[in-house]
Design brief:
Order of helices and strands: EHEEHEHEHEEHEEEHEEHEH
Largest sheet: 7 strands, parallel
Mean pLDDT: 96
Shape: globular
Number of strands: 13
CATH superfamily: NAD(P)-binding Rossmann-like Domain
Structural class: alpha/beta
CATH topology: Rossmann fold
Helix content: 25-40%
Radius of gyration: 19 Å
Strand order of the largest sheet: 3-2-1-4-5-6-11
Strand content: 15-25%
Distance between the termini: 33 Å
CATH architecture: 3-Layer(aba) Sandwich
Low-confidence stretches: none
CATH class: Alpha Beta
Number of domains: 1
Number of helices: 8
């Protein structure tokens, strides 16, 4: 089975690519905007429809996994790039699209796969990203029957693969600076290794539809950050709890935690709590 990983050099894509290479039943091809001969990554800009068509025709993937993200240009990535890819796929090709918990904009938390998503007003900081992800989900559901939409909360790594968010906190700690973290904003934080394992399982099975990926337990940014830096051997007392209000940040979703019963029933992957 041939698996094409789009965005195989990003935070998620690079871990997924390395894990997938060790799967005996999979033949894996990873892409990036820039080639990487050492890692056998091929160049592919999904905005180039001719290159997309040529690549898909040459590889003939059974499964395509979308790990691409471009926060400030997410609308173009979806409007042009996603459509370039999907329009050149056979209907039997499985397309796995990584989406986000941020499509739930009312912030009430504990969302299941059937709960309605929403849009942010254009002046909201994350409007381009969130609204584009929403549009990508809708496009897939209407235009490619063999899809899996995997919604996930913020990703984190391990002791050797540390996410930017935590690296910034570590810099504060090293400089003996206080770091303020929201104690009333809740997310389903997802380990990137667990998510990669789940995506590999989805590549090999017949599951389709929308899935929420993550552990059963939600965390505030405050509790997550404290636990994460403690895992890494740093002093968490520099992390201080703060409350964010709708007056300060009118478009913040206070709780986008995901109900993950469905994926736990369908896949053997166990998502760890932080």
């Amino acid at each position: 089975m041939k698996v094409l990983i789009l965005g195989a050099t990003g935070f998620l894509g690079s871990i997924l690519y390395q894990k997938a290479l060790h799967e005996e039943l999979l033949t894996v091809v990873g892409t990036s905007r820039y080639s990487n001969v050492a890692k056998k990554i091929i160049p592919l800009d999904v905005m180039d429809k001719h290159l997309v068509a040529e690549t898909i025709e040459r590889i003939k993937p059974d499964v395509v996994i979308w790990c691409l993200m471009s926060m400030e240009n997410e609308d173009q990535l979806i409007e042009i790039g996603l459509k370039n890819v999907v329009t050149h796929l056979s209907e039997v090709t499985k397309f796995i699209f990584i989406s986000t918990d941020a499509v739930f904009v009312d912030g009430r938390g504990d969302y299941d796969e059937l709960d309605p998503t929403g849009l942010l007003p254009s002046e909201a900081r994350l409007a381009i990203y969130v609204n584009a992800k929403n549009a990508g989900e809708q496009y897939l559901m209407k235009n490619h029957p063999n899809y899996v939409i995997v919604r996930t909360g913020p990703l984190y790594g391990d002791n050797h693969y540390i996410e930017k968010r935590t690296l910034q906190i570590i810099e504060h700690i090293k400089e003996n600076k206080q770091y303020n973290a929201w104690e009333n904003v809740f997310r389903s934080f997802v380990n990137v290794h667990n998510l990669s394992e789940a995506l590999i399982e989805l590549s090999k099975n017949n599951v389709i539809g929308i899935l929420h990926a993550g552990p059963p337990q939600k965390e505030s940014y405050y509790t997550f950050n404290k636990k994460r830096v403690e895992q890494l051997g740093f002093d968490s007392t520099f992390i201080c709890p703060v409350i964010v209000t709708k007056e300060e940040n009118p478009y913040i979703s206070l709780d986008t935690s995901l109900r993950t019963d469905k994926i736990s029933e369908l896949l053997p992957t166990v998502f760890r709590n932080i």
